[in-house]
Amino acid sequence: MRLHRRPGPQSSAGMEPFLRKRLAFLSFFWDKIWPAEEPEDDGPVPRGSDAEPAPERPAEPRSPPAPRAQIFRALYDFTARCAAELSVSRGDRLFALREEGDYILARRLSGPPSAGLVPITYVAKAARETLADQPWYFSGINRTQAQQLLLSPANAPGAFLIRPSESSLGSYSLSVRAQAKVCHYRICTAPGGSLYLQEGQLFPSLEELLAYYKANWKRIQSPLLQPCRPQKPLAQDKWERPRSEFVLRRKLGEGYFGEVWEGVWLGSVPVAVKVIKSADMKLADLAKEIEALQSLRHERLIRLHAVCSVGEPVYIVTELMRKGNLQAYLGSPEGQGLSLPVLLSFTCQVAEAMSYLEEQRVVHRDLAARNVLVGDDLTCKVADFGLARLLKDDIYSPSSSSKIPVKWTAPEAANYRIFSQKSDVWSFGILLFEVFTYGQCPYEGMTNHETLQQLSRGYRLPRPAACPVEVYMLMLECWKSRPEERPTFAMLQEKLDTVHRRLHLGLT
């Protein structure tokens, strides 16, 4: 068995270009005499009887191809958190066995065979595949660029890629990092169209060829461990996506900081898109803020998918919650019929999210029922945490009453822009009022100026008819004039959970 890496004899080197040019139709014959491979600077190759080929694995039985609608591709990396989940890398192809709530039970079709649960927001249905879709295929690079990529800090030994061959139009080359050097191998084409690295070992596609040499890497003495990671421009953030990837379908609402739309990402992933005018936002701080928010992961916080900050307007893209925001849902016919235990469960879920943000020392600045989203199963997730920090001072300021949500904002924040976890606690008290009035606006009939005046005189909102007395006492605790006297979110979560459990037990 001969591996195509070494040039032909020097004595015939002058004939090779002449014959290849004049008698191109005999290219397969010339490849036999003069293997048209990469130069001989790529390290040792097993030869003759000294080579010890690795024992070949028996071919694994292949499942019949899945219906196209059940093939998914991972949008980005996901690390399993328990034995039931499946770790995937961006670009992995998955066969969806079934949906289980917010997850799909999937079998991996690329990489090591395995199955498990993957969050449905991490995947999208795969379109018809081309080579360009493969994470290991790099169409626009040459040998030198391949070496630079593979030797970059982002890649470790075992990283590999396939690229078009420079010396043979229509052919490919396999480049593999081996410690501090890169080895290049010509992928030849047999007369019938099959591909091979070594004579007698034919493959119908590049995928099959790679799968074989991943399992039998000793035949080329270069393990194929992971596709090459491309280098990103320094200015590009992984959250930044082109606006063309998103289609806005239906306007869900309009808040203080822009419109919210239901949309589709990459033709198949349902998302919520907040649309904000670039003129209103501190774009220089956007990447820094997104970087800070990406580390916040909690089941009661809305998941950020992407941002589009190049051009007008700015998109902030998150997971979609089908029932919309809590304020609108409470005012809907369905929301008006909700029982007291369900209302309490909403408050408990929001307190849990805010307790997590409190632990992370993150201040929301705009906590309100309109920024809490509701799913089909009545789960609640807090959204827009940190967004207010990105708005320009002349937009989010006490002098701009059309923008700052005065009726939800603690007096020290509305008057002096002193935001803290304690100002979030004040806003949570207003959210409790919204929940137990089924979405009613607080301080109804008062202007923002009148609201601040009344608060400075000691006025507080009255107890809603549907609100238990002990929950209203918590509201009043949240509205203490001195911020340091207000409770923590951890304390609020504990007390609301106690009320909810007691009420639930009393009804069963």
From TrEMBL:
Xref: PROSITE patterns: PROTEIN_KINASE_ATP, PROTEIN_KINASE_DOM, PROTEIN_KINASE_TYR, SH2, SH3
Pfam families: PK_Tyr_Ser-Thr, SH2, SH3_9
Domain Protein kinase: 246-503
Broad class of where this protein is predominantly found: cytoplasm
Cited SMART domains: SH2, SH3, TyrKc
Entry function: Non-receptor tyrosine-protein kinase which phosphorylates DOK1 on tyrosine residues. Also phosphorylates KHDRBS1/SAM68 and VIM on tyrosine residues. Phosphorylation of KHDRBS1 is EGF-dependent. Phosphorylates OTUB1, promoting deubiquitination of RPTOR.
Official protein name in the record: Tyrosine-protein kinase
GO terms of molecular function: ATP binding; non-membrane spanning protein tyrosine kinase activity
Gene3D superfamilies assigned to the protein according to its UniProt record, in alphabetical order: SH2 domain, SH3 Domains, Transferase(Phosphotransferase) domain 1
Catalysed transformations (reactions): L-tyrosyl-[protein] + ATP = O-phospho-L-tyrosyl-[protein] + ADP + H(+)
Disordered: annotated span: 36-66
Organism of provenance: Cavia porcellus
Family stated for the protein in its record: Belongs to the protein kinase superfamily. Tyr protein kinase family.
Subunit structure, interactors included: Interacts (via the SH2 and SH3 domains) with DOK1. Interacts with KHDRBS1/SAM68 and VIM.
Residue ranges of domain SH2 in the record: 136-228
Organism phylogeny: Eukaryota, Metazoa, Chordata, Craniata, Vertebrata
Subcellular localization: Cytoplasm
Domain SH3: 67-128
GO biological process, one term: positive regulation of TORC1 signaling
Keyword ATP-binding appears in the UniProt entry: yes
Alphabetical UniProt keywords: ATP-binding, Cytoplasm, Kinase, Nucleotide-binding, Phosphoprotein, SH2 domain, SH3 domain, Transferase, Tyrosine-protein kinase
